[in-house]
Write a structure and sequence with these properties.
By secondary structure, the chain is an all-alpha fold. It has one domain. It is about 80% helix and about 0% strand.
Length: about 60
Amino acid sequence: FVRGRLKAGIPRETLLAEYIAWNRVRALETGLKEEDWQRFEAANPIYMSVDGITRYWTKKWETK
């Protein structure tokens, strides 16, 4: 998800919004309750995942 959008040059804020929405839908479809989603997001903000994945791919692409 993130890699493809990074390669397409999607801005960070757009990528964050899309990734958060994508993850939220997937979580709720599995039966996670909204209040549990909110607790998870507070404890482990999704934007941190996007930033970490972005750092990984950026470093990997720089070594090529």
